[in-house]
Input
Amino acid sequence: MLNNDQILSIINRFAIYGDFVSCKPVGNGHINNTYRSTFNQAGREVRYTHQRINKNVFKQPEQVMENIVSVTSFLRRQYQQMGLDDVSRRTLTVIPCKDGSMFYKDDDGNYWRTYLYVENVQTYEVLESEELAHRLGKAIGNFQNSLAGYDGKRLYDTIPRFHDMHMRYDQFDEALAKDVKNRAAGIKAELDFLAANRERGMVLSDGLASGKLREGITHNDTKVNNILFDDKTGAALCVIDLDTVMPGTVLFDTGDLIRTATNTAAEDEKDVSKVQFNFSVFKALISGYMEEAKGFLSPYEKSLLAESGRTITQIMAVRMITDYLNGDVYYKIDYPEHNIVRARTQIALIKSMDAQWDKIQQFIAGL
Output
């Protein structure tokens, strides 16, 4: 972490005015280092969030920031045209540098950005209820609906082919062929599952390639802790963590939404008997989502809502097993079997979905 003088010298590069009061590090710092500052502006305290972008994760921070500015600027115009209040709380506000740039590059080559801090909100780390699942689904549906008419420059693919199942299976095939840690023999059941589900898992990638699925803007990390909720009304206000906004099918986001919200266990639960697909949460989640998404979602996209959850869960299993075969070079692990435990959890979730597939599809058809 930087000392006070170091972080203040960086903050001073941004177009923030008033008297500096304080600054402190916040968050756990797994991806980006984050600080929060307070300024006195004519007797009113205003807070800002400052982040050092992890250039090891995001290889081209300039493109990340250009995507974020494109999306937030469009959303701001949309909300203003709708006559909504609190626009600065409904989408992130990027504070430019004094020279007009949207980021500052320090002498060590680190990229920094600043946001206006969104006040009077609450966040959740876990999905506590079906009611919260409904609000989460509604938030993502609103985010997608608001961006459905995006007419700006096409966003950069900051992580190329992120959800391309063909590429993920190619990487898996290469890892299996090399088997550098001699682990394949001990995971035959998991390898058989990936082989049996290979073709089915291609539906979203093939749909985009063929044009059956429209390209839009996707968030790619639609967890509940990336939503800010008003601390008085409880309504979803703002979708945050926009580093991975990219072109893609909206079903990438519904898939991640379903995968992360409906699992009854932790993502690295060793006892897979605890892993179940929570149908009641799924219904609440998708009901909230469809309240906002029904106006732009095509019949074909709607038909693949449940399949999107299955597909994104499968792609995570493929990636985790690939990393396990490669010797755990991508995901951080706490013990040698961590990646295969994670993969088994994803596979168990798919199997639980499959066991309830008929009623899942009946629910989707009845929306």
